[in-house]
Design goal:
Elements: E1 15-17, E2 26-30, E3 35-41, E4 48-49, E5 52-53, E6 61-64, E7 67-73, E8 76-81, H1 89-97, E9 102-106, E10 111-117, H2 121-126, E11 143-148, E12 151-159, E13 163-169, H3 173-190
Length: 191
C-alpha cells in the first residue's frame, strides 16, 4: 500500500539554496507521511497519556524519542511521529483516552509537514509570519498556530540551528512551498 501513497510535494522537495560554505542558507524537505494525532481532553490534565508526554504550558512541545507533542490549546494537542517510527501510537493514545472524556482523531492525511533549516530559515519565515521568532521569544521546543503568507499553519521549532517544522493543510502545501522557494531567492543575492 505504501507504494501507492503520494504527496502534493513530490518532485518539488527536497530543495536547498546553497551557501558558499558547507551548509545551505535554506533547505526545505518534507517529513513524508508522518503520523499526526489530534487529542482533545477534558480536565484534569495528565502529564502523560498512553506513555506519551503532554506539555501543559501554552505553546510548548514535549518530546519523547521520535514522538513530539505540540500544545495547541488548553485542552488540545497534536501528537506527531515520523512514518513507521511508532506504528502503535494511535492505538496507545486511543486506549489510554477510552476511560476519559476525550476525543482522539487521526489527522495524518490532513496536513503536510515541511522541514525548514539553514542559517536563513528564521529570516525566511519572518517574511510571511507576524510572530516574533527571535531566539529570545521563540526557542527550540516552542510551537504556535499562526498565519504564514496568509495561510493557517502550525510552527514547531525543532532546534536552535535553527530548524522548524511547518504544518500546513494538504490542499495548500504546494502553493506554500512555491511561496517559500520564491521568498528564499532573495538570499541567493544577499548571501
Amino acid at each position: 500500500m505504501a507504494e501507492l501513497r503520494h504527496s502534493p510535494l513530490d518532485g518539488q522537495l527536497p530543495w536547498s539554496l546553497p551557501a558558499k560554505a558547507d551548509a545551505p542558507l535554506v533547505s526545505l524537505a518534507e517529513l513524508r507521511f508522518a503520523r499526526q494525532i489530534g487529542l482533545r481532553l477534558r480536565p484534569p490534565m495528565p502529564a502523560y497519556i498512553g506513555g506519551v508526554p503532554l506539555p501543559l504550558q501554552p505553546n510548548r512541545v514535549a518530546v519523547m524519542r521520535a514522538v513530539r507533542t505540540l500544545w495547541l490549546g488548553p485542552d488540545e494537542w497534536l501528537i506527531t511521529a515520523p512514518d513507521g517510527a511508532v506504528p502503535e501510537l494511535l492505538s496507545w493514545i486511543t486506549h489510554a483516552a477510552a476511560d476519559r472524556r476525550a476525543q482522539v482523531t487521526d489527522l495524518s492525511a490532513s496536513r503536510i509537514i515541511i522541514e525548514i533549516a539553514g542559517s536563513r530559515a528564521r529570516a525566511l519565515l519572518e517574511k510571511g509570519c507576524g510572530l516574533d521568532l527571535h531566539p529570545r521569544a521563540f526557542t527550540p521546543g516552542s510551537c504556535a498556530q499562526t498565519l504564514l503568507a496568509g495561510l493557517p499553519v502550525i510552527l514547531d521549532q525543532t532546534s536552535a540551528a535553527p530548524s522548524y517544522r511547518l504544518f500546513v493543510r494538504r490542499s495548500a502545501a504546494r502553493w506554500l512551498c512555491d511561496w517559500l522557494i520564491d521568498a528564499a531567492e532573495e538570499f541567493r543575492v544577499a548571501g
